What we know:
about 5% helix, EutN_CcmL_sf, Ethanolamine utilization protein EutN/carboxysome structural protein Ccml, EutN_CcmL, globular
Amino acid sequence: MGIVIGKTWASKKVKELEGCHLYVVQPVSSESNPVGNPLVVADPKNIAAEGDLVVYVTSTDATQAFDSGFAPVNASIVKLVDSVA
């Protein structure tokens, strides 16, 4: 999980990323404590906003979060988190 702490822009993107937001996400533990360094994460469904708690995936799973089944990314947002019990 992670918290969206910012947004980044790219003046030029590959076609697979056109219309896709790119966010800076701080990874967090289940108690919402920061873990590790922030990373840039693609949001292929444009579901997140700054301050949201999200689930993100990395590696091959990140590329498969796109409708096309592929994009040149290392991390993608796949869900919003409503609450942690």
